[in-house]
Amino acid sequence: MNSHPIVKNVIFIGYGNRLRNDDGVGQAVADAVAAWKLPNVRAIATHQLTPELVEMLATADLAIFSDAYSTDTLQIQVQLLEPAPSRMITGHCCEPQMLLAIAQLLYGYCPSSWLVKIPAINFNLGDRLSTVAQHGMAQALKQIEFLILQQGVTYA
User: What DSSP letter does each residue of the chain carry, written as one string?
Assistant: First the structure.
């Protein structure tokens, strides 16, 4: 990335288990987004989604989540997220839609949100990404950059 856009309050959350090979690709993407050093873009690499993330979501204009998914395809999946119905909120929070619902419930607001799912084939113990996950990560980073730039950017 040659120019560094200024974007309002973006939170990127990449999650998964780094000790399960491809399952760690969400965290690897978060590390890459953090390396961009974009102003007002906070990248978080985490093992799992927890309610502690809700307060950050409630102050973001855009939230992007990324995780691995088991598939036969080599294509990433990108989906717009909506908060889970309030009747589905439970004490155990493990899906982005639940975090959005809790933010909506507690703060009366949740940001525009996307989930970028990265194809993965190896969930065995280890810390190496397969070529499938590496390819998906490259696709995901391009899509994430697009989503951030689409949010109304002014260049420094």
Answer: --S-EE-SSEEEEEES-TTBGGGGHHHHHHHHHHHT--TTEEEEEESS--GGGHHHHTT-SEEEEEEEEE-S----EEEEE-PPPGGG--SS--SHHHHHHHHHHHHS---EEEEEEEEE---SSBS---HHHHHHHHHHHHHHHHHHHTT--EE-
Residue 156: predicted pLDDT = 46
pLDDT of residue 118: 98
Over the chain (156 residues), the average pLDDT of each successive run of 10 is 61 97 98 93 96 95 96 93 76 81 95 97 97 98 93 51
Where are the domains positioned within the chain?
5-155
Superfamily holding 5-155: HybD-like (3.40.50.1450)
